[in-house]
Amino acid sequence: MEERRFDANGLAILTGVSGLFCIDIDISTKDEKSKRPGIELWEQLVHEHGEPETLRARTGSGGIHLYFKADSPGLKRKRNFQGVKVNGEAYGIDGRAAGGVIFAEPTSYVNGQGELAIYRWETENGPPSYEACREMPVWLTELANNPNGHGHAAAGEEEEETEPVDPDDDMQAITKYTRGSQEVQDLLLRIVIEHAAPKAFANLGRLFAYLYMIECRILATTNETEKSRDQIFFVWNGTSWAQDTSNLVMDVFTSQMGCLLAWYEKQRERCLSTLCAGRPELEGFVVGGVLQSLDSKEVDSKQAKKVKMAVDSCIKELEKTMPSFGKINVQDPADVRKCMHSVVPKLHVKGLLDLFDQDPTVANAQNGLIDLITGALLSHHPQDLCNNQTCKYISGASTRSTARFQTFLMDILPPEAIKWLQMFLGYCLTGETSEELLVIANGLSGANGKSALKGALERAFGSYACPGNKAIFMKPSFKANGSAASSHLMQIRTNRFVSCDESDGVEELHASFLKEASTGGRINARELFCKAQSYVPQYKLFLFTNYRPHFPSDDTALIRRMVLMMFNYTFKTPDKLDANNEWHKPIDVSLKPYFESDEGAADTLDFCVRGAIMYYAEKELAPSSKVLSPIPKAFMAAVDEYAEENDKLQAFIDEACTTKGANLSVAKSDFVEAFTTFLYAGGHDVTLAGDGLARAMCLKGFSQKPPGGGNNPMIRTLDGKKRGRGFFGIRLKTDEELMEAAKKDPDPKQPDTT
């Protein structure tokens, strides 16, 4: 809920995150010996180049604010600067960009002379707007790029911080005010005075809360599902919101309290010195607001008493005009916590954990926000609420002559599938889940490129990628309690690419969860000792394995979601490479270090971003269709083979049954016994011959009802002793038939995969 206050009459603009670069021209300076008024240089520049046409404002002290677009052509400077130097002379012209704050109308304050100073917009065509901000002219960009007059910065060169930074003020939220222009310090002083009172912990906390809200660099929340509901802080580091796990917020708050209180005490000393200077009886006895020791030999008791009374009067007047905060000890955790209690409510955002990384069409990179629809690199902004981050994004990195990621893909997978794979990897970078796909990367042996692909994607995707717990992919060997903690699902809630390495060949895919997670619906999960909550997953699941896990052969919904990428090649060192083996290729030992490097990561990321652009372009043409369907024939054929391999029932029917002939039938008890023996001999799951057998047989066309709608479904067993239900249209082969089939079709030799 928005709080309305009678004294909340200020407006602060964050220049950098608002896409603005503001030129601040002072008409006077505190020390004209070291810095001349900026208006002197500005009038010379305007006379030479003309007045820039852009949004303009008048400051409380009569100075000028000129608002330009931060992305103006040729403007390479992204940070603040204080003062410019021309021909050896320093002038009061400042720049406010990334990390900068500019006050604007209707802000007002009382200056040092007790006069009301007001900020005013100087607009002729309606209220101020971003559209009114123009691009900075070339002559002014040259000045902004080189405020110290040392020549132009090279393109892409990192700029050094030019603002003085207090070593105890990590976030600079205080020094930009305490060391700002005179009008900024006057405004800060007025606000501090309004909040000052002895031991006013709450007032001091509220003061910092206002400053932090202007900064937009700290947010607080609680995990509503936790019993403790402790405060969780997130800090905007300039590129993303990072959770404070090292007590950074408290440490910085402590140092900033000390910084502000020390500055305020200096202002009080100056005020006291001014008050004492106005008392003739204190001349020579008070220096810098400090009463000098009175020598009884030089000063009689009557004069000493008069001096002390005058000093006490000045101190009382000081307390009225500039009250003290008293003895607040910034080194005492108890005092800091008392102030912090008033800060947290102003910074609290309910449900913040559910708001991070919710825009599926963007990805947060180290150097900006990637629009995955257009490929444009946008400026970072706190309001985007990005918690994850990819590597640095360089548009066109994958098309350079030195790029290797696409060539690598063509070396390990069918070349005709690369375009589809690029769109799929771009889809993985997005938060979309509408394609309903589960990818299994499978090789016949090691050294086939799977790990290199996985490493390249994880390096490029950064924290958007995450290794998943095996319980996500593999069915647990025990029946889990539905209300049990599922931390492995909470861990991946904001990830977009979740992978798992290797299965042991005897495990079974966790079909129910894999289908649920790939559908795009809400998933219920909870942390240990927390309440259950639900979220919509953005992650795409990717299993890398040399041993294919089993799955129910009649689960058509799971099969429909599968993409099986076969890594058939084996990469060998020169001494083990068989030139006559078509599945052998020479290994490139420089590939892994390349993908781990910044250049390789940028190559991989750009390839995927281009895939995302292709994906969204196709999606725009047919919004309701599945863009990635159909999957490449090579991948689909592998899925069909995989499904057939897992169909143990069909394998048993082909080996031990016949479906040719009339009036065929088999008792269920005989069929189950023979099928169980077949499964046991092959080391397969014997539960396949259990409760789900009748459904599986029905799907294959073998009904438990007689053909033609007969009324007698009972079938006699092979030993002739019993009658029971069974299956029609099929019978077990006799021993003679099995022996004859074995003679005609001996076991084929297995191919050598070494």
Describe the protein's architecture and organization.
- By secondary structure, the protein is an alpha+beta fold.
- It has 4 domains: 153 residues, Prim-pol fold (2-Layer Sandwich), CATH 3.30.2250; 138 residues, no CATH class; 246 residues, P-loop containing nucleotide triphosphate hydrolases (Rossmann fold, 3-Layer(aba) Sandwich), CATH 3.40.50.300; 98 residues, no CATH class.
- The protein has 22 helices and 34 strands.
- A hairpin with a 5-residue loop joins β9 and β10.
- The radius of gyration is 37 Å and the shape is elongated.
- The two termini are 67 Å apart.
- 33% of the residues are buried.
- It holds the Pfam family Prim-Pol.
Give the oligomeric state.
single chain
Uncertain runs: 1-6, 150-169, 749-753
**What share of the residues lie within helices?**
25-40%
Number of domains: 4
> Biggest sheet: strands, sense, closure?
7 strands, mixed
Q: What is the third-level CATH name, the topology of the largest domain? A: Rossmann fold
Task: Show the helix and strand layout.
Layout: E1 11-14, E2 20-25, E3 36-37, H1 38-49, E4 55-58, E5 64-69, E6 84-86, E7 89-96, E8 101-104, E9 108-110, E10 116-118, E11 120-121, H2 138-145, H3 175-178, H4 182-195, H5 201-215, E12 218-222, E13 231-236, E14 241-243, H6 248-277, E15 286-287, E16 290-291, H7 301-321, H8 333-347, E17 362-365, E18 368-371, E19 377-378, H9 405-412, H10 418-429, E20 438-443, H11 450-461, E21 465-467, H12 470-473, H13 487-490, E22 497-501, H14 511-519, E23 523-525, E24 533-535, E25 540-545, H15 556-561, E26 562-567, E27 570-572, E28 584-586, H16 591-596, H17 598-621, H18 633-646, H19 648-656, E29 657-658, E30 665-667, H20 668-681, H21 693-699, E31 715-716, E32 723-724, E33 726-728, E34 731-732, H22 735-744
Parallel strand pairs: 3-7, 20-25, 20-26, 21-22, 22-25, 27-28
Antiparallel strand pairs: 1-8, 2-5, 2-7, 4-5, 4-11, 6-7, 9-10, 12-13, 13-14, 15-16, 17-18, 18-19, 23-24, 29-34, 30-33, 31-32
Helix pairs in contact: 5-8, 6-7, 10-17, 11-17, 19-20
